[in-house]
């Protein structure tokens, strides 16, 4: 038995007609008849009998139908309780986001606020190290951060990590007129060593540059900036190329308009994070508001 079949039972009981029930539910008469027949076989009893006066519960089916309708009423009560809770959820929600991942929050917060307009939200932009360090003191409710496997395995008791999005990988971005687009892919570091490069100014990319300069000598670093919009604009103008993690390239207007192109590249140096997602403490005294927010993060 499933909820769909219970809905059929309810409609047939109310209309006393399979034909009218099917019309009201917007399905075919044969579909509802087959579903009820299948349920009767599953239960081993006949639920309804047809006559020229309509379709009525059988004597043996009355008890089962009554219990099924009780289940449906209970489900409706649960939905109503959830609706009321949703409407009147109040309080403060403090979020912390890694600088490289904060762009993930606007859509999530927007959807949450539509359902919970009375919750006050504040966002702190910080580092993943600071987020993980302050989870236990309840400075904020939820953090968005990138982590490596060693961090995941060392998370303290009560700290949960909820992954979202794609597995992080580094991608090369070039202008629409770049000759690199005609090269066999994936590219390698050897294809770009002499080209002007624009890097995101973070400790990871500083280590990335050091790693390759030790092997191949100085790279042609045109600019390092913490502003990823500047990086993408300069690439679109053909001033240089860049390598960015894929989560910084999602829902990007310059990519959507084909002003810049994502090019697969094979690199020895691993991505900034192995995973990225939401971290929170199950011991937080305001767990209700955390649990209300998490479904919007998927």
Task: Walk me through what this model shows.
This protein is α/β, with parallel strands linked by helices. It folds into 3 domains: 84 residues, Winged helix-like DNA-binding domain superfamily/Winged helix DNA-binding domain (Arc Repressor Mutant, subunit A, Orthogonal Bundle), CATH 1.10.10.10; 102 residues, 3-Layer(aba) Sandwich (D-Maltodextrin-Binding Protein, domain 2); 97 residues, Periplasmic binding protein-like II (D-Maltodextrin-Binding Protein, domain 2), CATH 3.40.190.10. 40% of the residues lie in helices and 23% in strands. It has a 5-stranded mixed sheet with strand order 4-3-5-14-6. A 3-stranded antiparallel sheet has the order 11-7-12. A two-stranded antiparallel ribbon has the order 1-2. Helix 1 packs across helix 2 and helix 2 crosses helix 3. The model has no long low-confidence stretch (mean pLDDT 87).
């Amino acid at each position: 038995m499933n909820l769909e079949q219970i809905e059929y039972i309810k409609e047939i009981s109310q209309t006393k007609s399979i034909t009218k029930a099917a019309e009201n539910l917007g399905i075919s008469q044969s579909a509802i008849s087959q579903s009820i027949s299948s349920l009767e076989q599953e239960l081993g009893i006949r639920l309804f009998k047809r006559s020229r006066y309509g379709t009525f519960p059988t004597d043996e089916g009355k008890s089962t139908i009554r219990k099924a309708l009780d289940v449906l009423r209970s489900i409706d009560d649960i939905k109503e309780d959830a609706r009321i809770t949703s409407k009147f959820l109040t309080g403060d929600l403090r979020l912390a986001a890694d600088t490289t991942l904060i762009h993930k929050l606007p859509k999530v917060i927007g959807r949450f606020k539509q359902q919970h307009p009375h919750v006050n939200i504040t966002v702190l932009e910080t580092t993943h190290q600071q987020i993980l360090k302050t989870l236990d003191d309840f400075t904020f409710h939820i953090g968005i951060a990138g982590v490596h496997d060693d961090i995941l395995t060392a998370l303290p008791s009560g700290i949960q990590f909820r992954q979202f999005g794609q597995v992080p990988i580094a991608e090369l971005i070039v202008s629409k007129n770049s000759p690199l687009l005609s090269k066999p892919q994936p590219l390698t570091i050897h294809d770009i060593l002499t080209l002007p490069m624009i890097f995101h100014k973070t400790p990871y990319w500083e280590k990335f540059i050091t790693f390759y300069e030790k092997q191949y000598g100085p790279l042609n670093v045109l600019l390092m900036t913490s502003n990823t919009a500047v990086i993408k604009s300069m690439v679109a103008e053909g001033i240089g190329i860049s390598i960015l993690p894929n989560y910084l390239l999602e829902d990007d207007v310059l990519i959507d308009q084909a002003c810049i192109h994502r090019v697969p590249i094979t690199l020895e140096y691993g991505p900034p994070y192995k995973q990225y997602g939401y971290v929170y403490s199950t011991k937080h005294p305001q767990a209700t508001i955390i649990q209300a927010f998490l479904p919007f993060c998927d």
